[in-house]
Amino acid sequence: MAVTLAGCGVVDGIGGSSTKASPTKGDDIQVGLLLPERENTRYEKFDYPIIKAQVEKLTSNKGKVVYANAEQDAAKQNRQLQQMVDDKVDVILVDAVDSKSIAAGVQKAKDAGIPVIAYDRLAQGPIDAYISFDNELVGEVQGKALVEALGENAASKKIIMMNGATTDPNAAQFKAGATSELKDKVVIAKTYDTKDWNPVNAKANMEKAIAAVGLNNIAGVYSANDGIAGAAIDALKTAGVSKVPPVTGQDAELDAVQRIVKGDQYMSVYKSYPEEANAAAEMAVAKVQGRSIEFDALTRDKVDSPTNKDVPAQLVPVVALTKANIQDTVITDGIYTVKQICTAVYKASCTAIGLK
Asked: May I ask which residue range the UniProt record assigns to the signal sequence (predicted)?
């Protein structure tokens, strides 16, 4: 899916617009989109282009997406949000770098009469709605899969727990869900949070874990996402592991799917980005155009943030991705093709599991 910035101006040197929003709130609308970083490939490859295409589809190509990526910089994202408020976009979708620090900006948007929808991460402040995946369920799926992979006598086996960034509220939910499945079923030998979700930081933490616990004593790794999983696997291989123990992941990134095919990574959590992104676009357009019945139908769940209760929400379901269901998930949904997954290096492994 090609990523194009056609029709978008510049916000803080990335994507955006300085044109004023239409006062009619018809199809000629501007949807502000603030995404947090580029380290995870999903944002540029899926979220932005899907939301852009869906907004255009819903507005007969009259609506535009004003896009900015914060590149993991919370202060930068706050400036980008302020710019969108100054430019009077009609509605803002924000995937917060720091859910707490974004609250003041959300309040400014609210004061300016601009609805704010929290996307993927639950931003604090007076948001109008929230759309994401069931994040505790993500952790539960990961934890359950790891326990199953460890097999008999799992309760005596040591694992390393590699969580996400403390600034991301989703990370806390993943951790809570995973802990509920892992507690009393395995031995959590070491636990680490990963600053900025950065794989470099994750690899350093995994190296510490190997030194403290012992390479041969690590029976599995709970990894909150695929970037961390890749770093953990790299550290294990560098340390000389003869066979990589079960490692979890999340996001179904292409290299993670390939690791699963090869057997280096046990599983990932597949979240249908098309489903989430399309629903977010529908939610944003319905909100700004005043179609309350449609908006309410899209937000039948309720969630609480530290600052607001009973926020209208949509929680999209998730799937455990293993060797057994690659065809039925990422390939069927058009996320990847067999050709993209089964490059020369992985061809034999693909054949062995029936991917052709």
From this structure: none
Non-local CB neighbours of 177 within 8 Å, separated by 6+ positions: 135, 136, 137, 138, 139, 140, 141, 142, 143
Give the count of beta carbons closer than 10 Å to the beta carbon of residue 238: 12
What 3-state DSSP class applies to 218? strand
Residue 8 Cα distances to 176, 285, 295, angstroms: 39, 17, 26
Distances (CA, A) of 93 to 56, 72, 179, 284: 15, 16, 30, 7
pLDDT digits (tens, 9 = 90+) for 73-95: 999 999 999 999 999 999 999 99
pTM greater than the 0.85 cutoff:
no
pLDDT band at 12 (very low <50, low <70, confident <90, very high): very low
Q: What phi, psi does 354 have (nearest 5°)?
A: 85, 15
Q: How much is the average pLDDT of 114-139?
A: 96
Q: Which residue type is seen at 226?
A: D
Distance linking the first and last C-alpha atoms of the chain: 22
